[in-house]
Design brief:
Blueprint: H1 2-13, E1 22-26, E2 42-45, E3 57-62, H2 67-83, E4 88-93, H3 100-109, E5 116-120, E6 126-131, H4 136-148, H5 150-154, E7 164-165, H6 175-182
Parallel strand pairs: 3-4, 6-7
Antiparallel strand pairs: 1-2, 3-5, 5-6
Helix pairs in contact: 2-4
Length: about 180
């Protein structure tokens, strides 16, 4: 009886300790001038993991043949190095497949264009959902806001269940995080 209860507790607690994508490394042979196949953009451990509850999640959807996805992969690895202890990274590579758990994310969030970035807060609510190459500074702002001010960001009047396409990185599409941070 005690073994059964211990097994049940361990089975329920295991997802809380599941490792996300770890040891992320950018493919050193990428040619950023061509849209061609050059191997996986990002490699690492636990690449088929899905979201982790209780922490912010950074989800990137991409494929290796896309010029902008190559640049977004470089940004993703840079952000991973800065936030790996505080943010769970989920990499969904359409060239090399994804897990059944990641398939739920594809069905729920993917808008048929790459690259696409989705940031979920610790409660699993999308606070950032954009299509297109997104600057690192913009993503850092959203990650910092998600970590520091989760209640204000989740209450912001911008629905993120559907993605917004980024056409001009200098546009004001990213002002909600700026407005939130100005409150403090």
């Amino acid at each position: 009886m005690h073994r059964l209860m211990l097994a049940l507790v361990l089975a329920l607690a295991l997802p809380l300790f599941a490792a996300g994508a770890e040891n992320l490394v950018l493919n050193p042979h990428l040619n950023y001038k061509r849209n061609n196949h050059q191997g996986p953009l990002i490699t690492g451990d636990n690449m088929m993991e899905s979201v982790k509850p209780g922490v912010p999640n950074f989800i990137v959807f991409y494929a290796e043949f896309c010029y902008n996805a190559k640049r977004q992969a470089r940004t993703t690895v840079d952000l991973y190095k800065k936030y790996k202890d505080r943010v769970h990274f989920v990499i969904i590579d359409f060239e090399y497949g994804w897990s059944a758990a990641q398939n739920k994310l594809v069905q729920k969030y993917f808008a048929s264009n790459i690259p696409q970035i989705v940031i979920l807060d610790a409660k699993g609510r999308p606070v950032f959902n954009y299509i297109g190459q997104t600057p690192e500074s913009t993503l850092e702002g959203w990650l910092n806001a998600t970590l520091q001010y989760p209640q204000f960001l989740a209450a912001a009047p911008h629905p993120m269940d559907t993605p917004h396409e980024v056409t001009d990185p200098t546009s004001s599409r990213f002002t909600p995080v700026t407005k939130i941070l100005k409150k403090f």
